Amino acid sequence: MTALIALRAILHREALRFVGQKGRLVAAMVRPLVWLFIFAAGFRAALGLSITPPYQTYITYETYIVPGLLGMICLFNGMQSSLSLVYDREMGSMRLLLTSPLPRWWLLFSKLLAGTVVSLLQCMAFLGIAALWGVRVPPLGFLTIVPALLLSGLMLGALGLLLSSLIQQLENFAGVMNFVIFPMFFLSSALYPLWKMAEASPALATACALNPFTQAVEMIRFALYAQANLPALGWTLLATVIFGAAALWGYDPVRGQMKAKA
Amino acid sequence: MLKLALLLTTVALPLSAGEIWVTNEKDDTISVIDVDTLEVTRTIPTGERPRGITFSQDFSRVYICASDSDTVQVMDPTTGEVLYDLPSGEDPEQFVLHPDDRHLYIANEDDAVTTVVDTQTRTVVAQINVGIEPEGMAVSPDGKVAITTSETTNMAHWIDTATQKLFANTLVDSRPRHAEFAAGGQELWVSSEIGGTVTVFNTADQTEKGKIRFEINGVNADLIQPVGFEFTPDEATAFVALGPSNHVAVVNAKTLQVESYILVGRRVWHMAFSPDHTKLFTTNGVSGDVTVIDVASRQAIKSIKVGRFPWGAAMRPTKG
């Protein structure tokens, strides 16, 4: 019971923070929309992209990058919550939270879930706009994508959590941008199919395939067309477990990074 | 009980059961696609370079232009066996079956003639001199007028089927490839591949009624090359294949305005409807596949791999 109260309180705080920061709300929507409206227009393949599953016919570039942009929303949200955790630690509210009698993993999971729900709402809003923009999504896809987005959100949130346990100061967040977000995003199938990457360099294509963000994007891509990509689902689950366990270790006051910072 | 079960089985059978027959120009084969499963169910060998394909009215025979074999093959569609060849003149590319279900009007690309063949007596009834590189063929619904378009002369030649003589020639834009009668025979539509247009004529006096032009965002105008086209049964809408622009245009047949463009495979040539006209199958020459368009939503739903360089397409209903 107490656990649920704590979960609700953390969700509420995250929701308040999200709604309260109007600029963040707008920025969260603008980022993927800029990619969809401007970047995709610039790269528009008017003659169509070759067919790769789950697509059954030729598609425009706009259609191709929508799952990647949904992944992007999850990625930025995961990092954003990592940023907020560092902030919380600096401000002291983290200590208050972690002194709660509830198990630490539950508190961290609640935090993770809160961030994921916010990310899911943004994704659905973006998907709605993309559909109005002319990107065709089967109606069932709006439903089947929800679990895929939740799992992707949890995986990237867990990564954020892990990073937040490693980052000493708020100022270091720029490093996260350079060393985590950009490589993860560009070394993935979000903007270009893997076979296209393999044309340029097989090594890069392998790196892309190993990137958990690629697996999340591919899982989202198939789910959007009401199909399951089991290998991608498996890899994303595995990455979630590994990042989650490492984050827990990082937040363990006896063994992890918290010891050094306490 | 058994009767009821049989009845239910009959009711449950799809009403639209049918096949799309696609000629593969480079493979010398026909790919047969099931319109319900959207899969290739059979591949049938033909003569060399099969292009034009059409069924007899009762669908008991299929006629195939085997261009490089210089013949029109007649096949039993149930067995896939070639029954006999018809004399066709050299290099038959495209043909049309007269509404009498007996006479084939064949364009002989290399000879600048249109050959009329009686499919029952298997003899050439007439050969009519037309322009250079004839290709597009059409016959009016009343059977009185046949059309040949010549790719190099850039003309539609009007043939009186009673006398088998030309009675008019009308200029169209560069390289006319395909012709069809519309509006119950009151209009003739001719596509011009290099000109990038479709010209609409009044059949009564052979005057030009209008011209359809195409424009696709991001696609070079040179790539927009109209070839085959088909009308919905109410003749309110025409679907026009635009060759290497990889798009099919949806045209309002009354206003002659383009309403939308549908992305399909590479170098789209010709097309055929499913028996219930809910799906349209386009042959994409370069990508070697057939794109299925949902007619109601005007969206491509699937592309099916067939042989190399699919060219012609024809529908055959099946009993399910």
Description:
The complex is a heterodimer of chains A (262) and B (320). Chain A is mainly α. Chain A is 77% helix and 0% strand. Chain A has twelve helices and no strands. Chain A has helices spanning 2-20, 22-42, 61-91, 93-98, 104-132, 141-166, 173-186, 194-200, 202-210, 212-224, 230-251, 257-261. The model of chain A has no long low-confidence stretch (mean pLDDT 85). Chain B has 320 residues and is mostly beta strands. Chain B has one helix at 2-12, and strands at residues 18-24, 29-34, 39-45, 50-55, 62-66, 71-76, 81-86, 92-97, 103-108, 113-118, 123-129, 134-139, 145-150, 155-160, 165-171, 176-182, 187-192, 197-202, 208-213, 229-231, 237-241, 247-252, 257-263, 268-273, 279-284, 289-294, 299-305, 310-317. The two termini of chain B are 22 Å apart.
Number of helices of chain B: 1
Summarize the helix and strand pattern of chain B as letters: HEEEEEEEEEEEEEEEEEEEEEEEEEEEE
How many beta-strand elements of chain B? 28
Rg estimate of chain A, integer Å: 19 Å
Strand content of chain B: over 45%
**Most extensive protein-chain contact, per-chain counts:** A-B, 11 and 18 residues
Order of H and E elements of chain A: HHHHHHHHHHHH
- Extract low-pLDDT stretches of chain B: 1-14
Rounded to the nearest angstrom, the distance between the terminal CA atoms of chain A is 29 Å
Instruction: Name the helicity range of chain B.
Output: under 10%
Number of helices of chain A: 12
Helix-strand category of chain A: mainly alpha
Quaternary assembly: heterodimer
Content-based structural category of chain B: mainly beta
Distance between the termini of chain B: 22 Å
| Global geometry of chain A | globular
What attributes characterize this protein structure?
heterodimer, A: 262 residues, mainly alpha, 12 helices, 0% strand, globular, B: 320 residues, mainly beta, four-stranded antiparallel sheet, 28 strands, 3% helix
